[in-house]
Amino acid sequence: MIDKTSPIPIYYQLEQQIKTMIENKEWMPGDLVPSEREFSEKYQISRMTVRQAINNLVQMGLLDRKQGRGTFVSDQKIEKRGLTSFSEDMLERGMTPSSELLDFKVIPATAAIAQDLHIKESDPVYEIKRVRLADGVPMALETNYISADLVPGITEDLLNQSIYQFIQEKLNLSITHASQSIEASVVDNVEAEYLQIPKGAPTLFIQRIAMLENNVPIETVKSLYRADRYKFMIDLKR
Q: What is the average pLDDT across 65-73?
């Protein structure tokens, strides 16, 4: 119910009601929500007030406006916390991870890759280019570079599993920390096709160098994550 005598703004009350319905799974991703007119008539409030609530929820990523079709409940974003592989992330959330392998080969390290991995230029590295999927939906476009001398035995079959799990369980190497940067980006035609989003759609461009416990870099990776499906959570301490 909307309490018009409350000091809490009416738009905020409506906003919270809609959020609660989504969180309680009364409205599921893909469901069409009532129109501004329907909300206005149901609660006897102005359409401008309804529009403010809807706009706020669109900005939060909970609702998605589709031109000429209406407003829908968005697919919920996957939260990323901690240093885990993509496969580990998806499995923790009850989703099935998979990959579409675009390219897999051993190449000589460029100067930039060698600097990231603390190896010599032209040393052999695996170059792994994949589309990462969760329940069959593209989430990220990823390119990994891993030292072939430090991590022997990576095969194409292994790429359907978690590389981190292979490194830790089969090679007894412990990945403990990483340095990572996150930037806003947009996709070109090729990237958009792989991720199944429109050209120019916003993405998160992630660069990460993963380290072993002795501070030896084991992987450098560049990823484009769909901004409509993924968010990164960072815990800060003072």
A: 85
Q: What are phi and psi of 9, to 5 degrees?
A: -55, 145
Q: What's the whole-number average pLDDT of the chain?
A: 86
Does residue 49 contact residue 41 with C-beta atoms inside 8 Å?
no
| CATH number attached to the domain at 78-232 | 3.40.1410.10
Supply the pTM of this predicted model. Answer: 0.65
Distance CA 176, CA 170 (A): 16
Q: Please tell me the predicted confidence (pLDDT) of residue 80.
A: 53
CATH numeric code, 10-73: 1.10.10.10
Q: E-assigned strands of the chain?
A: 63-66, 70-73, 78-80, 97-108, 124-134, 137-147, 175-186, 202-212, 217-226, 230-232
Q: Rounded to a whole number, what is the distance in angstroms from the first to the last CA of the chain? A: 41
CB of 78 within 8 A of CB of 134? yes
| Nearest one of 225, 127, 233 to 183, comparing CA atoms | 225
Q: Is there a contact between 145 and 109 (Cβ–Cβ < 8 Å)?
A: yes
Q: What is the dihedral of CA 167, 171, 105, 180, to 10 degrees?
A: 30
Query: Does the structure show a pLDDT above 80 at 61?
Result: no
- Boundaries of every domain in the chain: 10-73, 78-232
